[in-house]
Amino acid sequence: MTQKPAAFVAIILGCAVVLALAPLILPPFYVRVGQLMLYSAGLAVAWTILGGFAGYASFGHAAFIGVGAFAAGLVEERLTGLPPALLLPIGMLVGGLACAILSAAVAYPILRLRGTFFAIAMLGVCHVCAELNNNIDVLQGSLGLNFPAVAPAAWDPAVFFYELYLAAGVVVFLIAWQIQRSRFGAGLLSIREDEDTARMLGVPTERYKRIAFVASAVLTGLLGVIYAHSLGYITTDSVYRDDTNLSLIVYSLLGGMGTLFGPVIGAFMLVFITQVVLARLLDFHLFATGLLLVLLVLAAPGGVLGLVKSWKLRRRAAATAPAE
Amino acid sequence: MSVHSKKATRRRVMSALGAAALAAPAIRSAHAQAKTIVFGGSVPLTGAAAETGLNVNNGYITAVSYFNDVLGGVEIAGEKYKLELKLFDDASDPARATTLIQRQIDEGTNFFLGSFGSNIVLPTAAITERAKKPMVQTGGGSDAIFTKGFKYVFGMYPRATRQFASTAALFKTLTPTPQTYSVIWTNDAFSKTAGQGVKLSCDAAGFKKLDEFELPAKPTDVSSVLGSVRANTPDLLVCVMHDQDSLLIARQMVASNTNVKCLFQGLGPQLASFREALGKYSEYLMCSTYWDESVPYKDKFFGDSRKFVEYYKTKFTRPIAYHTAGAAACIETYILAMQAAKSTNPEAVRDALSKADYETFYSRIKFTPDGDGDAIIMGSMIGQVQKTKLEIVFPEAASSAKALYPQPTWDKKA
Amino acid sequence: MNLIIQTLADGLVLGGIYALAAVGFSLIFGVLHVINLSHGILVLLGAYLALILSTTLRIDPLLTMPAVMAVLFVVGYAYQRLLIQRAVDRSPLGSMLLTFGVALMLQNTMIWVFSPDMKSITPGYALASFKLGAISFDAVRVSCLLASLVMLCCLAALLKFSALGRVIRATAQQTLAARLCGVNVRHVYALTFAVSAAFAGASGIVIGIILPFSPADEGTWTLNAFVVVVLGGVGSPAGALIGGLLLGIVSTLTAQYIGPSFPNVTMFLLLVLLLLVRPQGLLGNAFAPSR
Fold first, then answer.
1. Is 3.40.50.300 the CATH classification of the domain at B30-157+294-365?
2. What are the per-10-residue average pLDDT scores of chain A (324 residues)?
3. In chain B, what are the domain boundaries?
4. CB contact, 8 Å: C219 with chain A?
5. Backbone phi, then psi, for B299, in 5-degree steps?
6. Which chains touch A (3 or more CB pairs under 8 A)?
7. Interface ipTM above 0.85
8. Residues 6 or more apart in contact with residue A269 via CB below 8 angstroms
């Protein structure tokens, strides 16, 4: 990154303020779409800390959404006496902690796998969590779990959760940005490019991967806790979704794999397309979504940022060619 | 000059188009308020619940086109209205369902029809509740929906734990009286609560429980469970799960020659495709059904249930299911409530719905104070497959045949 | 004692069918290094074709196998040449997403064409059973198992002895070397895909006979194939067989002794554990030595 850090943070916070004011003029439907965009973008950036920076593409991050959400919900259910303003922070703490423990526990063995095998193993982890959650009665996965209404009475819950997602999204984004520009981030990049060489050159690859994995999982879990509160009632099927697992990869591919802005752009675009453009298709929307994926892979394998980059290169080539 | 004027015209056309595009939704909603009543909501037309989703969707279409084409619209407080459906596919994704419900509320839709599965119905109902728009739905029976204190949500079925009361009552009337039962359910919110309901009702009726089995949400093999059933055979085997899983159990019971005196499947035998797939072996199987062509109710619009079916057959070739009739009844219930309220104001309609006591081709319509269907009036009837047809065997008022018990063993049916 | 033997027998029968359903997936993974998320769709396509053929021609569904396999062979060949080939040498994620997109489109198309209803194929012997000592067997499951084993042997022989099989194996082991020796790699890729699709179709017939199916089930069969391949190892019919049988036995044993709702838990637990202990599968990797 060539920008000055202070300027960069200022720009991001400026954008955030503009976005925060948006619900004042947006109709309620677009506030909901905005919620979903910010939530998806947050997830996509959290995913990219591991999948984009370190090149360990997880196919099972919905596990952390689910574990975070259910851990928070089960604890909050036992604390009904407390004011709602306290419940959400407690829930997030619990959810984040649960994800930290789970990810730390599986990190060591599972990060020995690479490429597709890592992706598949994460899918396995996600399904094991989902099945256990569904089949152990105290975890209430199949009967469903209610979440307390945490929005202050004066606020429209839709706007409240919009702002909450926005705040969480900005935090996730800034954390990812800090990671990217740090020595740690450079280490992750070296792992993505050539892990064995990186290790030979003295990069503590194991430790770096594990930290990235846990960070990514905890941030995902926190977003999952907010998501569950915004729905108010969840079953296993609401959070452990294979289409979420897949969407997280699609966001990065659509925007640009391994970049910081790519996942955000990808998430915004895909949510807009599926929720606004394709929304009215009654028995056609699966087909349209599938077609979109196919076209994406065939036409823009580098994502939107990849297209922009190649366009810039071509223009530069065109500009320099006549001078020679 | 020509260049200039061309540009100017183009700009003018563009701005005119832009203005039209901006104005279009406004015009349409104004139009909707004047003459049409819009019903919004979602149905799952893809994903695991798609089969029932299609049945429900067909029911909505049948009702709306009957009211519009055959009756020429409905009269409410002296004014004629046409009906319009605006549904979308939620693909069983709660995020998608909640976002798109909001869009319909923004667009001025006042009346909602429900989706399938409590994890979709509840979050969407929370939004319509907040907007004070009623929702009458056929797809969410879990207790969770009706114990949240929602005032605008109505269900066409009793809540899941109460759905089995009438079946237990039927079991009591069989001779020789059955003594024991076992219950199997799959692990999803609906079937699991229904399983609890089976235990509550059967225990209350004095039957002894031998075993209970919980299957995964999508079982592919039940031979181990059937082994346990053979080792410890109950008089009544009750399965509460979705149609596809019921078929799997029935087929494996035949193949492994697992016999009980009565096999009762909550969902399954009511579908023509299920009976076809099992052939002769579907004889004597029992199931819950909420409606049948032969029910005796009179209807002020359709006449009766046979006439409803006749009209349905002019529109669709797909065999009719009780979900189709239930869905059509949702719309009819709305119309009756609007006529009773003499208004299309959503809050007035909600009040009328809560006081509803109507007779429709589908059943008598009466809701509990919590919004679910009255357990006795809108509770399930019991069907039994007899000579490849589904006959109603309980309650007596609606029955078309007598319940046959005990069922013969599978090898005698061949 | 009888209970455990019965459980094992049920597991083996189920496992043989899992194996056939997974072998095509395994072959594509082994040769093209593509994770074919539309595998389940190909399986279902086989089931629907068999249903249509056997009811219109009034023949035993297992007899429709040659026709179904031929159709799917052509479909698979075209699918690879027209779509997959364009993404095959890029990132594995890209090709995986491509197949997922296709799966979504085809699932939607199937809903239009075949309706979302559950269907089942019911041959005359669908509900018969026989006893061997105290162990009872489901006739249809056993005949499906036999069909599966025969098909797996055919595929193994094809790969081992035929010229096509040699070329496929060569391409899988050293794509570049094979190309240098004059192998038309694109053609081989497409043929591999075609063979895999044909076997997916064959397994679809078998599955359609023993289980009710609907378009929404495609994910289940893709996922099952995934697990089988990871258990048994990539690219070989023997690996798929071992993986399938293991999965079948583990499922029925769990259902019997832990609880009927737990087979999926043990299935995925086994998947994760095995990936950690032996990422190359129980039989090792039949083709490429390290991947």
1. no
2. 77 92 90 94 96 92 96 92 88 96 90 82 89 87 86 88 95 95 94 92 93 97 96 90 88 88 93 84 80 85 80 83 55
3. 30-157+294-365, 162-289+380-413
4. yes
5. -135, 135
6. B, C
7. no
8. A254, A255, A304
CB A310 within 8 A of CB A317: no
Under 8 Å between Cβ of A225 and A69: yes
B238 token code pair = 């009750």
* Residue-wise pLDDT tens digits, C53-107: 999 998 888 899 999 999 999 999 999 999 998 887 777 778 888 998 999 899 9
Domain ranges of chain A: 5-282
Sign of the alpha-carbon torsion through A246, A250, A252, A258: positive
* DSSP structural state of residue B66: I
Strand partners, B182: B211, B237
Tell me which architecture the domain covering A5-282 has in CATH.
Orthogonal Bundle (1.10)
Contact across the interface for C269 and A120, Cβ inside 8 Å = no
Nearest Cα neighbor of A296 from C66, B259, C100, B204 is: C100
Domains B30-157+294-365 and B162-289+380-413 equal at CATH topology level: yes
Helix (H), strand (E) at residue C57: helix C39-57
Contacts of A169 (CB under 8 A, 6+ apart): A38, A39, A41, A42, A45
Q: Do B225 and C255 touch (CB under 8 A)?
A: yes
- Please name the residue of chain A whose CA is at the shortest distance from the CA of residue B196: A143
CB contact under 8 A, B273 and C251: no
Omega before B395 cis (within 30°)?
yes
Q: Do C118 and B273 touch (CB under 8 A)?
A: yes
Structure tokens at B58: 């067909």
Alpha-carbon distances of B52 from A50, A134, B43, B295, rounded to whole Å: 40, 23, 9, 21
CATH code of domain B162-289+380-413: 3.40.50.2300
